[in-house]
């Protein structure tokens, strides 16, 4: 990419010998006065440390205590790509708080340019952000988010994978499962998945139908659910 950028810069500057010598441009051959657009990874690094404005596009209950919030950028730009399992640092302005409140939530859907989905358990007692979002974050509600972070991600492999979770810990596993099913279908080669999940009972069990639908779409996707208080 660096070589290609230098080639373009030389051509734009009218250096006619460049095209002929395109395989031998020395690294120092580029003029320091020419500004080169930042690379995609430089933009991503920048986005990682800055909050951008997001808007709730859709709200979907997943169980009696877990609700999904679909977020889009307010400037209409596509989202930066993320890896399945990463989380989103968010900043929410809550009336009565003297400064915006920061929390992190795992993105519960596979990478796409359109939206993040955060699936948030309504906390008990004085749980500030989760209770506020459940009560007040309707479509159109604005908050801020950094680019996704985190190293707990699905490795690139075709080996069988076991996804184990409890309660709201299902969120990264849903993103990973969605990705594996989509990639397996695209490649025509099905990576075996064992999806193991524990929760209290059906009333609080999030993504029950969604995981069933993913399993129905993938011949080697086994689901095991265990309830502690059926
Ligand atoms: C990497 C990562 C990913 C995460 N992903 C998800 C996810 O996908 N979904 C999800 O639902 N959560 C997720 N979480 C948890 C989330 O970040 C929040 O911690 C959670 O929502 C609670 O925040 P809150 O503001 O609602 O509650 P808080 O205000 O932080 O309160 C938490 C608990 O402490 C109690 N409490 C508050 N103040 C006091 C006090 N002064 N004295 C005693 N007790 C008090 C509250 O009653 C509550 O029970 C994730 C966390 C991390 C670190």
At CATH level 2, the architecture of the largest domain is: Beta Barrel
| Gross morphology | globular
Radius of gyration: 22 Å
Look at the structure and give the mean pLDDT: 87
Strand content: 25-35%
Query: What class would the helix/strand composition place it in?
Result: alpha+beta
Termini separation (Å)? 56 Å
CATH level-four homologous superfamily name of the largest domain: Translation factors
Relevant terms:
single chain, 230 residues, alpha+beta, Elongation Factor Tu (Ef-tu), domain 3, Rossmann fold, 3 domains, 6-stranded antiparallel β-sheet, 3-stranded parallel β-sheet, 6 helices, 9 strands, globular, binds flavin-adenine dinucleotide
Task: Please specify the SSE layout and strand pairing.
Blueprint: H1 2-12, H2 17-20, H3 40-48, E1 52-61, E2 66-73, E3 87-92, E4 101-106, E5 116-121, H4 128-136, E6 142-145, E7 161-166, H5 170-187, E8 193-199, H6 208-216, E9 221-227
Parallel strand pairs: 7-8, 8-9
Antiparallel strand pairs: 1-2, 1-6, 2-5, 3-4, 3-6
The structure holds flavin-adenine dinucleotide (FAD).
Flavin-adenine dinucleotide (FAD) binds next to strand 4, strand 5 and helix 4.
């Amino acid at each position: 990419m660096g070589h290609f950028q230098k080639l373009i810069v030389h051509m734009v500057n009218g250096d006619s010998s460049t095209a002929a010598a395109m395989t031998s441009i020395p690294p120092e051959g580029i003029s320091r006065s020419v500004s080169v657009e930042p690379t995609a990874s430089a933009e991503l690094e920048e986005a990682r440390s800055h909050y951008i404005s997001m808007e709730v596009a859709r709200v979907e209950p997943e169980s009696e205590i877990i609700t999904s919030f679909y977020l889009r950028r307010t400037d209409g730009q596509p989202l930066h790509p993320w890896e399945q399992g990463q989380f989103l640092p968010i900043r929410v302005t809550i009336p009565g708080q003297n400064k915006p409140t920061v929390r992190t939530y795992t993105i519960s859907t596979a990478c796409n340019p359109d939206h993040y989905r955060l699936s948030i358990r309504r906390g008990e007692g004085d749980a500030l952000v989760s209770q506020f979002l459940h009560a007040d974050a309707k479509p159109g509600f604005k908050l801020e988010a950094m680019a996704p972070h985190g190293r707990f991600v699905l490795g690139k492999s075709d080996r069988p994978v076991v996804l184990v979770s409890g309660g709201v810990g299902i969120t990264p596993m849903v993103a990973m499962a969605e990705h594996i099913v989509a990639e397996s279908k695209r490649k025509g080669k099905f990576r075996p998945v064992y999806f193991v999940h524990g929760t209290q009972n059906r009333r609080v069990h999030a993504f029950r139908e969604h995981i069933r639908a993913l399993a129905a779409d993938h011949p080697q996707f086994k689901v095991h659910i265990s309830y502690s208080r059926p």
